[in-house]
Amino acid sequence: MANEQLLTVEEIAGVRVVAFKHPHQSVDELMIPSVNEELLSKTESAQNVIMNMQNVDFFGSAFIESMFRVWKRMKSKDGGFAVYGLQPHCREVLEVTNLIGLWGGYNTQEDALAAMNAD
């Protein structure tokens, strides 16, 4: 899995939309180094990032830290960061940690894009 690309990137109206290529039941601790490296690399030059979380059923604190790093980078550029397509457990984790308030928790890509373009 070391050389396998785990994420896809699409540019839509100046926003970089990042998604997991394949459905993953869990973004587990073994995946985190690869996911973290790829996520940071694919968002480095972006001003605005939206994470498509439709293919993720579970993640823990290590992945939250990865998303937090991207959010912090976007914030330092006066950019935006949002998530959409959260599965129930993932939504609950972000609600409990109060990150849903920072990152949204949009149902669709269109909702996330509209919210980002409204800012």
Strand order of the largest sheet: 1-2-3-4
Task: State which percent range the strand residues make up.
Answer: 15-25%
Please mark out the parts with pLDDT under 50 across 5 or more consecutive residues, or reply none: none
Structural class: alpha/beta
Straight-line N-to-C gap = 38 Å
Mean pLDDT: 93
**Individual helix count:** 5
Helix content: 40-55%
Q: What is the total tally of β strands? A: 4
User: SSE order, as H and E?
Assistant: EEHEHEHHH
Oligomer: single chain
Largest sheet: 4 strands, mixed
Radius of gyration: 13 Å
| Approximate shape | globular
Provide tags for this entry:
single chain; 119 residues; alpha/beta; 4-stranded mixed beta sheet; 18% strand
How is this structure best described in words?
With 119 residues, this protein is of the alpha/beta class. It is built from 5 helices and 4 strands. The chain has a 4-stranded mixed beta sheet, with helices on both faces. The longest helix has 16 residues, at 61-76.
What is the topology?
Blueprint (H helix, E strand, L loop, with lengths): L6 E6 L2 E6 L11 H12 L4 E5 L8 H16 L3 E5 L3 H9 L3 H4 L5 H10 L1
Parallel strand pairs: 2-3, 3-4
Antiparallel strand pairs: 1-2
Compact overview of the structure:
The protein is an alpha/beta fold and 119 residues long. It is 43% helix and 18% strand.
